[in-house]
Amino acid sequence: MKRAHAGLLVLTAILLLLPLVLPNAFYFDIVNRMAINAVIVLGLNLLIGFAGQISLGHAGFFGIGAYASAILTTHFSWPPLAALAVGAVGAALLALAIAPPIFRLRGHYLAMATLGLGIVISIVLKNEAAYTGGPDGMSVPPLTLFGFEIYGERQWYWLFAAILLFSVWACQNLIDSPFGRALRALHGSEVASQVVGVDVARYKVAIFVLSAFFASIMGSLSAHYVGFVTPNAAEFLHSIELMTMVVVGGMASVYGSVIGAVLLTALPQALATFEGWETVAFGVILMVSMIFLPKGLVPTIAAKLGRKR
Amino acid sequence: MFSQILQFMFSGVTVGATYALAALGFTLIYNASNVINFAQGEFIMLGGILTVFFFKTGLPLPVALLLAVAIPAMVGVLVEKLAIEPAKGAGVESLIIITIGASLVLRGLVQISFGKGAASFPAFSGDAPINIGGAALAPQSLWVLGTTAVVVLALWLFFNRTVAGKAILATSYDPLAAQLVGVNTQLVLLVSFALSAAIGAMGGILLTPITMTSYDVGIMLGLKGFVAAVVGGLGSGLGAVVGGLLVGIVEALTAGYVSSAYKDAVPFLLIFVILFFMPRGLFGAKTTERV
């Protein structure tokens, strides 16, 4: 428990000090993207790492949030917060509706079903051009919170930093709660947890809904932040990117999620000048980390240091 | 009316045959190793892209075709050696992720070396359509169907009439028992990867004169092949073929009568329906889960 607080303190300190060292808006932008991904990956890691359920369509929920915000604020002039809420609730409801049949499946079939979900969402986004602008995407108005417009990378930075801190804190609490213990039991052995009275199906559905909710909110915020959305947001490749972050950082590790997101958001920036190599690098990282660090960076390093996380 | 349906059936069966080839590739590897190879689609893409490349360098088409099947087969062996073998004992999720990694590497390398543009080569025997019952059938479609039939027949003979094929079957039933009776299961794995890559590449080659190819066609073709394999029931050869044709036909009918924009969504909606009502697919083995 104490160590968890220490981690939060370190993260707070880093987030407070970062603005002093970041030279310009470009770097703020990269850090903001890292934070967006980190929050989604935290949610996805609950699902993959703790509940042991693979999802190859998570970008679909991100896309729902992004387009809910884009469409409702542009075409129907809703206030951004209301649009964000509707998107998040919609994504959660969709997850709730499809979860019971999906989680009857496992392994390959589960991978297939979640993958199909993501693809169907991205096809809908591409085709309903009257609302979504089709494959070219659409622009999104800036985010106003209580009459105050969030403007520029620096203001967004504080918003994203606050959300990230809150999410890390919430995840740690969740994992230490009876709910979290049930989740970990689920990952260890479904049968054993069933025997000791864990309602396996209910927990899986709950965590799936929660992670969809997280992803949708970040989709909304990132749409406002970037000011533009394209169907790529919901694409298979984006789902894979998110999953890579989980895998590289470390399954079932809160700080692993953050580190995975930071590393893999930075990577495309570093490789941006070499077109195509970015994809190759992602692939190599996926394979190498699964083969040599099947537990991911943070848990492996933690084990090396002789500490238990 | 009739000729219209016939027309849609022709195009459905043609792409369906390619899906069937992809699905057979999935099935082969799945049976030998319980791995779902998400890089299968990239073998399909490689087949088409390499044929275009060798054809443009001036090689005669048959030589280009041969190379475009042989090289993906070697790539398949490499994927098994470099990515699957070192991860022995990893779980289903880890293996899925590893093969996704392999597919990204292949796609990236092709994008770097051959560029992003769409490409094609001339159909094997001209473009003059054959008129059947008021519907036009492209000669290339006959090539697709004929080759698929030959491949299916050859696979059937291989698995039922040769020792090597039976060794692969034995490995798929029980790897340990197969090893005990002297089957080199390591070799079986390599052969399965080579075979499934070669079959996938053939599908990619045959389809290219009809639909063109580019570095990124592998994702969709591979995923639809996977859908076909799952629809038919993972692990069943017959299921793979029926699943492939079914997916192709439903897709073509949707494109014709409902909306061509949503045809790509069809396989994935189909998979939901099939999985929810028949969680093991149409021809999947009935298994009970052991605790």
UniProtKB/TrEMBL annotation, chain A:
Task: Describe its membrane topology.
Answer: Multi-pass membrane protein
> Which Pfam family would be a valid example here?
BPD_transp_2
Name any GO cellular component annotation. plasma membrane
Cellular compartments annotated = Cell membrane
Q: Which protein are we looking at?
A: Amino acid/amide ABC transporter membrane protein 2, HAAT family
Write one Gene Ontology MF term.
branched-chain amino acid transmembrane transporter activity
Q: Which organism is it from?
A: Rhodopseudomonas pseudopalustris
> Could you tell me the superkingdom of the organism this chain comes from?
Bacteria
Q: Which InterPro entries did the record assign? A: ABC_transp_permease, LivM-like
The record's CDD domains line, in alphabetical order, gives: TM_PBP1_LivM_like
TM ranges: 39-69, 81-103, 109-125, 156-175, 205-230, 242-267, 279-303
Q: Which UniProt keywords apply?
A: Cell membrane, Membrane, Transmembrane, Transmembrane helix
TrEMBL record, chain B:
Q: Which GO terms describe its cellular component?
A: plasma membrane
Q: InterPro entries this protein is in? A: ABC_transp_permease, BCAA_transport_permease
Write out the entry's keywords from A to Z.
Amino-acid transport, Cell membrane, Membrane, Transmembrane, Transmembrane helix, Transport
BP GO terms, sorted: amino acid transport
Specify whether Membrane is a keyword of the entry. Answer: yes
Q: Which residues cross the membrane?
A: 6-28, 35-55, 61-79, 91-110, 141-159, 180-206, 226-253, 265-283
Q: How does it sit in the membrane?
A: Multi-pass membrane protein
A GO molecular function annotation here is: transmembrane transporter activity
Query: Which cellular compartments is it found in?
Result: Cell membrane
Q: Which PANTHER family match?
A: ABC TRANSPORTER PERMEASE PROTEIN, BRANCHED-CHAIN AMINO ACID TRANSPORT SYSTEM PERMEASE PROTEIN LIVH
Q: Which family does it belong to?
A: Belongs to the binding-protein-dependent transport system permease family. LivHM subfamily.
Q: What is this protein called?
A: Amino acid/amide ABC transporter membrane protein 1, HAAT family
